[in-house]
Amino acid sequence: MFTISKKGFTLIELLVVISIISLLSTIVFASLNIARAKARIAAAQRFATHLSRAFGADAVASYNFESVVGATVKDMSESGRDLTLVGNPQLGPGVSGGQALSLNGSTQNAYAPAIPLTLNAFTFTAWVYPTVTPAIGSVGVISHIDTSAYPYIGMRKLSTVNPLHFIVRFDGNVAGTSFSENYCPTVKLLVKLNEWQHIAFSSNGTEFAIYLDGQEVCRATRTTPPINFSPNGNTVGSASLHYGGYIDDVNIFSQSVF
Which CATH number covers residue 120? Predict the structure, then answer.
């Protein structure tokens, strides 16, 4: 009579199998994350390209940081709003393989001169790659300051437990609750550190909308006063609320997206 021996897996064999499955899962999830990131960037690039083609002739300021001489960044819109670099910022890799402006988050920014112009409708856009987590409070990405309005795109961290998120405002004051926080859930405007994101803020005078990576994430009815580019110009990186990271393809158009 034969006896059949029933032998199971040893503990070591089970651990090896589990380790292999875990490793394969990690590789698969990493590949999926990379694919999602590439798809997000591609969608944002299509949106940015659409805006440039549709409104390029109506740009009142445009900076791709490919033409930089000394401390001067050429305004590609030919409107004469060349940026002056402050604090000796450097150039780094751009979103599409060119150059981007690199700011240290403490002493560096860029500003353009005040050239008289009034806009009733506008669109501000920029590619951002934040590398510095700001302290509790706000940092500026792109803004224009005058006595009646404060078109402003920035980032804010309300507390140590709150996520970093994009903000926009248009009320002449950067203190307190931001313009976007009154209308848009913070979860729709989360900032990704060490990744490129495209942010756009547009108004036609009675409505405003925010677009993140080519997707409209917020729209609301809100009367906004015209932008007056005199006596102040526009800034990149903010002169007081310093942004740390890369900024690329900054545009101000004299048209709204809608």
Answer: 2.60.120.200
